[in-house]
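TEACHING EXERCISE
Course module: macromolecular assemblies
Task: Read the component lines below, then compare them to the predicted structure of the full complex.
Student: A.B.
Group: 4
Components provided:
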Amino acid sequence: MVIGGGATGAGVAHDLALRGLRVTLLERGELTSGTTGRHHGLLHSGGRYAVGDQESAIECIKENQILRRIAPGSFEENGGLFVALTDEDMDYLNPFLDACEACGIPATVHQAEAARRMEPGLNPAVKVAVEVPDATVDPMRLVLRFFATARRNGADLRTFTEVTGLACAARTVSGVLARDLVTEREYELAADLVVNAAGPWSGQIGQMAGVTVPMQLSPGVLLAVRGRFCGRVLNRLHRSADGDIIVPQRGLSVVGTTSWVVDDPDVPPVPADHVAKMYAEGSKLVPALAAAERRSAWSAVRPLVGAVTPSRGAASTGRELSRTFQCFDHKQAEGVEGLVTITGGKATTLRAMAETGADVVCAKLGIDAACRTAQTVLAPHGAYYTERGERYDRD
Amino acid sequence: MSAISRTGRSARRPLRGAAGWARVRGRHLGSAAFLTNRVTGLLLIGYLYLHLGVLIMLTEGAGSWGHVLALFKNHWFLGLESLLILFILVHGLNGLRLALVGTGVGVRHQRAWFTAAIWVSAALYVVVVLAMFGVI
Amino acid sequence: MTETEIPRGAGQVRRFRISRQGHGAARPRVEEFEVAVGPDASLLEALREIRSHQDRSLTLRYSCCHGSCGTCGMRVNGHEVLACVTPLASLGAGPVVVGPLANARVEHDLVVDMRDLYDHLEPAQRPLVRQDERLAGQEGNPPGPAFARYEDCIECGLCVSACPIAGSDPLYLGPAALAAAWRTVQEPRGADPSSVLAWVDDEQGCWRCHASFECTEVCPSGVDPAGATMALRRELTRRKLGQITRRGRHRP
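Instructor-supplied answer key:
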């Protein structure tokens, strides 16, 4: 029983279904509506984390290559540039190149003139640009391929089904209490093991079994403007900061992002000054962006794993926590059997997250089955709608 | 060959019959053209029946001509006849637009063509009415 | 920002008349809600606010919040729109009437069954990614190196909802499928354009269109399904005329 229909749930459902388990997934809204669908749309090369978070960077580049293999034709594969505009940026160049090499991220240096030829919209003040294998990904459709494949392999995917409680007796989770929002009926489902993949709501699900999931909810604002101002992803060559990346997608350019901390994962605000900052920072990379028409501005919550300790003093921006994922077997920490939480991570590493989580699930259930997701080509996203298989039929 | 039969699920879309196409709210100029053509088309079909009716009157013998001519000179009837001509103009000129646009010619200017068709119909309608009532 | 509490901007209170419909119900009922929203808020933000903090039984589809996933299609004040890119400020001052897309079965409230749309799209064999050369603001300049981008169509179903023929004929392929077919014919990328042309050359295919052009008017992504349908007809007409003028008639 997987709770959560985002990237985490998709990866886990797909992996477990491939290993032959009978998977039921519950999602309270449309698939990827929680937070996954709202991410920037970047297939990370890992460049952004190479200097500050090598573990993340290595995960990223490895998964970047795997995803291109298992989901061919799902990306705008144009690469990305890390662009140096100032002398301060230039100081970052060598550490950046060294870190990329250490992490196995292919990086090619282009001088100013070459960079301007590659990207005519770039700020003319560009000094140097480093090419990395970034790509644009359609946030929902890539994940939908995982769901479509899981369904093909027998997974029962139930959208608009909200988990209202966990059936818990004698410190063992034995199932879930669900409310079907479409038929407006409530029912109970038994499960050998419940996987909490609810992203920003993992804490709330954990509470239903009396366990704590150490999380920090960190939203960020993203801005999409009309007009595609670059062919490839553009990053600012400096330490991670607000508004330092433009991801083109179809006829839009998406600028992001900011970072702060909230308690409530539902409907985080979209502060106007953050949006203004996206325009300001984005137009440093691409001057024409300043006059571009706003298509949409929204916020998405990052489910960061781990709590910020009180001794840190000043309030957290959320950028300090590692973006790697964690898998909690609640039997070990709190003695609650039958529940596993997988949280944290980023969209690019969904498959790896799922592999780790699925390994834990299989170990707990005593199932000996190897992970095959790195070799299995995924079904097309439309198959989620066009293919039926055995599934829960509301009619 | 139709892919519809392949999936066999065509009946899911709710069938609302005539009401399915007669939506006015939130529509644009192209829809106005479509609706106008459909309505004038139906009215013209109605006219054909009327025409048959008049012809049947004529089969009633030599004396029936007098009845028919009297009918033709009635002002209300003339008014209806002028409307008929308007419908023929609109339906015909829009029909020309559809014949061209509908085979991929001048699609970009489809709104302009419809506007032109309406203006030309209106102008010719005025001329026809004036001629009908003996003004010109 | 370093504050942990971002105060919501003081905006205004908007009224919404939302279509509510139970699963399998014959007709919908309308429920009124009031929400305080910021000046730049989108319709989707208001609906999510209603769903999260006022009535958790309200069901609606959404995902990307920037017009790329195509899931938040609905009819607002009679117009087909994507809720995520519809600023409330553009909807006038009065109550906002929200209802599900037309020409698709309503599952519950604002959620419709999208399976028909995907069933019709599948035979078009259109791949997800295309090659495109020009960047914004580059008009008049020589085109830069070709780069890959997603097809414009985001499978939102607004075109099908707006189409009067889709509204009265369940067998019509529909504007989305025809637009997809034209893209495959223009840029096959390994698909077979002849089989796709044969598929649309049907009384329920591209010839069923009555040129209302609503699909192109409502498309949020610049696909121009009407233009695509007419282009398919032009291509088919050209091929048939070509067959007639060649020596002897040859039927494929």
